[in-house]
């Protein structure tokens, strides 16, 4: 055989190898018996496809267009290399439901969760319990990421969760980008993204409008960046609540930048319980280049947080808040008081700095109310310009 023939044969074999390799790595749900009729439970189908993908280097689970009902999904590693979960259809939760979570990815390093599809929590089937008697019971988070390192969540939509839409817990180096999270403004506890015990988390260029916090940054969260997020409706972008449970860990290195909040119940909020059962420290927090559009409580530190009047009267928070900067926060408030900083008398807030803040109410100047806090307004032409 000539050298030219050898080269041609080598190229043909390489192409064949790539095609076979690609086929072996892509595990399509319908090839495992998945039924997209919006009724049949595909739990075992998804489990089987995940087992194959997780056990294959660079394995992919692919969900094509259509509605696939999944009663629950436990996708656990460690896997043989990076793993991709591609959603182009709709994953639909069952009616009702209880427990901590619906879909969980655990101990998976190098996870990519992407696509043009939707994770639908079917939340209305559970929210009705809250409206009937006020006792919501335990409801599952739609998507929980646990003990995962180096993950990308991109392009997907999450809608109508029974509880939180996305909870990232005990994970590192997770990037959430270009996601859309929506639920009705009166849906209970439907936080968009909740973080806890996680480090180096980026939430970027996303749209979040729910019935609770767009982003809630809980205990043990460090080195978090929220950038390019549109929030509304909802309860704003929050740190906390903190101090409700024993043994809570510090929160530090939080940056919120280039975000827009529209008609939210709160804007930039830090909330802690009083009295507190633990004493974490909140430090090194920066809010910069924030646009506000008719927002309630645009800037608020509430160390007497007590939703639904459910806590014991009296007592002070033992959560320490220090090193918080608000820079170039501009726009409109829905009320006269635009800055409301109410800190613990036992652990006053320290180093609270405002620069380039201009927030108006019906075109008029707003006020700032401050208690037990070291608050400094830097520069001129700020609105408000001082604590009253």
Task: Give keywords.
disordered N terminus, elongated, mainly beta, 388 residues, 23-stranded mixed sheet, 34 strands, eleven-stranded parallel sheet, 47% strand, 12% helix
How does the overall form come out from the CA principal axes? elongated
Q: Beta-strand level of the residues, as a percent range?
A: over 45%
N-end to C-end Cα span: 92 Å
Overall mean pLDDT? 92
Main sheet overview: 23 strands, mixed
The helix-and-strand class reads: mainly beta
| DSSP, total strands | 34
Note the total helix count.
Answer: 3
Radius of gyration: 24 Å
Helix amount, in percent?
Answer: 10-25%
Report the uncertain regions: 1-22
3D structure, described in words:
With 388 residues, the protein is mostly beta strands. It is 12% helix and 47% strand. It is built from 3 helices and 34 strands. It has helices at residues 3-25, 43-54, 124-133; strands spanning 26-28, 37-41, 60-63, 67-69, 73-76, 83-87, 90-92, 101-106, 109-114, 118-120, 141-146, 149-154, 157-159, 166-169, 172-177, 180-182, 193-196, 199-204, 207-209, 215-217, 222-227, 230-231, 237-242, 251-262, 268-273, 281-295, 299-305, 320-333, 337-342, 349-355, 358-361, 364-365, 367-371, 373-378. The chain has a 23-stranded mixed beta sheet that branches. It has an 11-stranded parallel beta sheet with strand order 5-8-11-14-17-20-23-25-27-29-33. A hairpin with a 2-residue loop joins strand 31 (358-361) and strand 32 (364-365). The longest helix has 23 residues, at 3-25. The protein is elongated and about 65 Å long. Mean pLDDT is 92; it is low at 1-22.
